[in-house]
Amino acid sequence: MNSVSTIVELRLQxxxxxxxxxxxxxxxxxxxxxxGHLKLVDAAKEQADRxxxxxxxxxxxxxxxxxxxxxxxxxxxxxxxxEERGADLLFLPAVADIYPPSKxxxxxxxxxxxxxxxxxxxxPGHFRGVTTVVAKxxxxxxxxxxxxGEKDLQQLIAIRRMTTDLNFPIEIIGVPIVxxxxxxxxxxxxxxxxxxxRSVAPRLYQIIxxxxxxxxxxxxxxxxxxxxxxxxxxxxxFRCDYITIRRLSDLGEPDEGESQLAILVAAWLGTTRLIxxxxxxxx
Length: 283
Ligand code: PAF
Description:
alpha/beta
């Protein structure tokens, strides 16, 4: 696997593949790779001849009080894992390549509505940072297909909408959540949990799984299900940000009888904010 850090080198390598008629898949990441990321690479290999992975811890998507400086950085380990998994190119840009220093503010890409609800309400500006960097990376890599984890469901939906609205000729593929054996969704942030928090963390998935079970058995009072679940989270030691049943297409409030739903949760364990979701089709 080749590694490049400048946009010029990246474009040169990709131009060669394009000239040979190769189809290109892209997996953007912030590094500290785990099996969830590597499954994106596996899925990318099924979609294309060449797989490009980027590692860039994007400052624009972190709020002032968030974990940008503490965000785990493991470039050597990441590179070895990607090599093992058969990625073709690793793009490791510097902050100055993505956001060249300038006195004026940079151009941003902001997807309306979806960026302001749920995680967007708790983390103002987060999705603006995500869609801005992903748009920039799309323009640099110009892939045929890009893959994102369904764990960040709101991010995936915002990126799909951006891709459609801005006419990027890129197919967006969501890859199912990868879970630990006890059900906890894999995340770089799981590494922040201490031993006792780690033992409680799987309750998150158990609690949303219970909502799924009740929806599937015909319970239709969403408010009641959400309130019961929030109480369970509280009892387990979480500080709940939201636990909610939404319409899958845009994460808006579902109309009565809506069958394509997502159950989404964000909750704090100590200083760590965890998210999870389950997609459900009631048809
Ligand atoms: O999901 C992530 O790791 C990031 O939000 C992404 C898509 C790489 C953009 O920085």
